Amino acid sequence: MPFCHILSKTKLDQIEIKLIFENMENTHKILIVDDELVELETLCDVVSSSGEIIASSSGIEALDIIQSEKPALVITDLVLKDEIDGLKILDFAREKIPDSSVILVTGHASVETALKAMKSGAYDYLVKPVDIRRLRAVVDKALELYRIARERTRLLEAVDGETQFQGMVGVSSSMYRVFKKIGAVAPTDSTVLILGESGTGKELVAEAIHNLSNRKGKLVKINCSAIPENLLESELFGYEKGAFTGASRKKQGKFELANNGTLFLDEIGDMPLQLQAKLLRTIESGEVEPLGAEQPIKIDVRIVTATNQNLEELMNRGKFRNDLYYRLRVFLIEIPPLRERTEDIPPLISYFLRKLSAKFGRDIKGISPKVLNAFLSYSWQGNIRQLRNALEEIAILSQSGILDELPSFIEQPDKIQLDGTMEQLEKQAIENALKKTGGNKTKAAKFLDIGLRTLYRKIEKYEIEI
Q1: Which residue in 200, 319, 334, 208 sits closest to 268, CA to CA?
Q2: What is the Cα–Cα distance from 236 to 444, expressed in whole angstroms?
Q3: pLDDT above 60 for 155
């Protein structure tokens, strides 16, 4: 164990000490706060091998240390003699060092304090006299989470570099595969079918394919589900003057507008069968026939289509032509839903917060651990579009640099009333939450307003059967 020096900063009745451990290069800083000298020295001795220890007997000084030293972990007594107690240190640390964890130590156990600590974001809380083995285990796990959080932050800071491709943000292996496919197919003239749920970014994929291609013409887009069936044909193929009542002038269709470029047909699964046949003829012949035209027009258009529907199921139901499906499915790109690539959520958050900072004219630094945990465990049926809108909603609600509100569609936790000793109460709170949510751990963690990893740790600790 490294040798430690105890440096007295004031008289004995106002002890404010720092412990400096030598030969601790590349270790994490751990701040320990307790106004009882014996307790302080004991805590420092127990965790001395885990990092560089900075100790203080003053809550006021602890805030200064957090501001200047940015410790990876804070271990603080709940009740201190000055006006800054452990909960105030916890709140300050959450704002200034959101990647770090705070462990509360208390000799005054109560259910109100226990629940407040959990809801305020404490990593754990221990009752005096502290169990040494448990403290060391909790410290090791907290520091491991810090290392993970720092890696997450590194990804956030690198979002304008390797995490972004043609306006799309992603660090997951599944998104790298999408990026690789885009890069491979873009220089060709092959027809591309993009599959993905609503809000996954299918239009961005189409834009990237066109931007990376060698085509000189424009990218022209049309949403097949947004245009009435009786107008869709004229929008796609155009018409000649006098082709029908009201056709007072010639109109170029989307195919002609996209000549020498790319035509993006979004929601292709909603195209009527009658138009599917005409679309197939146009693709096969390379010619477009405007309504009322006497001669077809030769065109050079690359076709990219997208849908959130199961086209094979539509074929089985007679809603989509088999021959058209296989003509469109020359090259397939499937975009995974956001819930299957949660590692992309932190860089996406950073990306959108930068845009929101510019939009609202204020510096939005990030989101609180509570909000991040809720976002990581949410199912995101609306995918990236829903995430972007959620961030805008809570940015409007919050005026601070760290967004701490949950969006309206994520359930707020209810209040819990319990009786018993602190550890029994915590166990009972978790059991009640699991019972209320039918054993769903993700929903139970939201109900308790704690992280999913914290819930798993507590379930294991209390040997709770589900």
Answers
A1: 319
A2: 50
A3: no
Burial zone of 250 (CB within 10 Å; 0-12 exposed, 13-18 middle, 19+ buried): middle
- In a domain, residue 413? The reply is no
Q: How far apart are the first and last CA of the chain?
A: 42
Q: What is the pTM of this model?
A: 0.57
Give percent of the chain with pLDDT exceeding 90: 49
Distinct helix (H) and strand (E) counts, the chain: 18, 18
**Nearest in space to 329 (alpha carbons), one of 317, 311, 313:** 311
pLDDT in tens, 86-104: 899 999 998 899 889 999 9
CA distances from 376 to 65, 167, 344, 349 (A): 31, 22, 10, 11
Given 312, 335, 358, the domain boundary residue is 335
Q: Is 9 helix (H, G, I), strand (E, B) or coil?
A: coil
Find residue 127's DSSP bridge partners. Answer: 106
Same domain for 200 and 181: yes
Q: Which residues share a beta bridge with 124?
A: 103
* Amino acid (1-letter code) at residue 272: P
Which residue is associated with the tokens 């994520």?
Answer: 410
* Burial per residue of 335-346, b for 16 or more beta-carbon CB atoms within 10 angstroms, e otherwise: bbbbeebeebbb
Q: Cβ(297)–Cβ(252) under 8 Å?
A: no
Beginning with the edge strand found earlier in the chain, give each strand of the sheet holding 219-223 in spatial order: 219-223, 262-266, 302-307, 192-195, 331-334
What is the pLDDT, as a whole number, of residue 424?
Answer: 67
**460: helix, strand or coil:** helix
Digit-coded pLDDT (tens) for 226-270: 888 878 988 999 888 766 767 768 888 899 999 999 999 999 999
C-beta of residue 255 within 8 angstroms of C-beta of residue 264: no
Rounded-to-integer distance, Cα 277 and Cα 289, Å: 13
| Domain membership of residue 265 as a residue range | 173-335
Kindly state whether residues 60 and 150 are assigned to the same domain: yes
